[in-house]
Design goal:
With 391 residues, this protein is α+β, with helices and mostly antiparallel strands. It contains twelve helices and 21 strands. Strands 1, 2, 7, 8, 9, 10 and 20 form a seven-stranded mixed sheet that branches. A hairpin with a 4-residue loop joins strand 8 and strand 9. Helix 1 packs parallel to helix 5 and helix 8 packs antiparallel against helix 11. The structure holds dihydroflavine-adenine dinucleotide (FDA).
Amino acid sequence: MTFDTIILGAGAAGMMCAAHCGRRVLVIDHAKAPGEKIRISGGGRCNFTNMHAGPENFLSGNPHFCKSALARYTQWDFVDLVQRHDIAWHEKTLGQLFCDGSSKQIIAMLLAEMERAGGELWLQTSLRNLNKTDNEFRMEVERDGQRHSLSCRNLVLATGGKSIPKMGATGLAYDIAQQFGLEITETRAALVPFTFPDGRFRDLSGVSVPARLTNARASFDEALLFTHRGLSGPAVLQLSSYWREGEAVSVNLIPDLPLLDLLRAQRQTAGRKALKTEMARHLPARLIDYLGQQVPMAGNLADQSDTALKDLIARLSDWQLLPSGTEGYRTAEVTLGGINTDGLSSKTMEAKEVPGLYAIGEAVDVTGWLGGYNFQWAWSSGYAAGKAIAG
Ligand code: FDA
């Protein structure tokens, strides 16, 4: 069977590409259903893009690579598509756009767009071997226990990264890229919780506070969540993409609180109040109990010297923590690194040295922040490749 284009992976990027790359398109996926990560994303409501998406929200060996695709298919283009399909949406926080209803609406929309463009979808289909002649790719795939020989002029790698192997994530795109001489940059679990060896936050499990997490490379002001394994929540997931083993992170538990002024004022008017009681007005009581074991917090407000208060504030605004690791690909939302962008055209996503081979989405070394940015990259890169193939 001969197709113009075969797309490996019916995820966000693959379906978007299929909707734009013209006729005689086959999308192949080994999963039972397309877009499984879309389905579970955003707590079932899919944070499908971000109003503020721009190149600065992405990590890559080449920070300029994503610019062209993001500019040619923007968050507003995707919002427009969502609106044309009558999918109601809202901004939740920090520009993050979610479906009002269900992420399944986004999958249905992409399937409808694919169908309109004449794309065919084969699920539960596995690639068995692949090679290239001068002007076409040839492969054998297995579907329903039967082998099929396929050929195509354009092959699009859209099988994503390694995160959540339980959902069928594999390194197939990396393997094929390497087969054709493309380089893979170091891959790491990203947007992932930090772990600590001693279960030290077990008693705080479930406590969430607004915090500022900082290391030498980045700083994020978002929620911090204590878990029985360690630290999670948006601030932690964001910083995890910039973290390396053995590095400490600084946690500011009072990023926007003029706590010194508040405590001084209370010391004047309510000096007999216990310091811990006053602190529990600003931070969760369980956290204060925990911190009270590490930072001196005994006595009444009137007992506290200015030096003691300043010392307390300093400890709360720069709590140094040394994660032992992360939860890894088991729970990571994305994979950092991937197919080296040096080998790809930033306009078309085509391999510079292998005409007809394209790589899009998470498989490429472009990783977004938490907040809808990774889907935006899938839409933008999928569109870029699709339009280039359609010609
Ligand atoms: P994607 O992973 O979507 O698709 C790859 C496809 O390839 C899958 O269908 C898979 O079955 C298939 N495949 C893999 N190996 C194969 C093989 N060997 N043979 C055949 N098929 C194969 N992002 C965001 O912007 N907003 C959000 O709300 C979320 N939420 C979120 C929650 C959770 C729990 C996770 C794990 C991730 C997110 N993300 C996210 C990240 C987002 O899901 C991710 O970046 C995109 O889905 C990447 O799109 P791709 O199309 O590149 O890969």
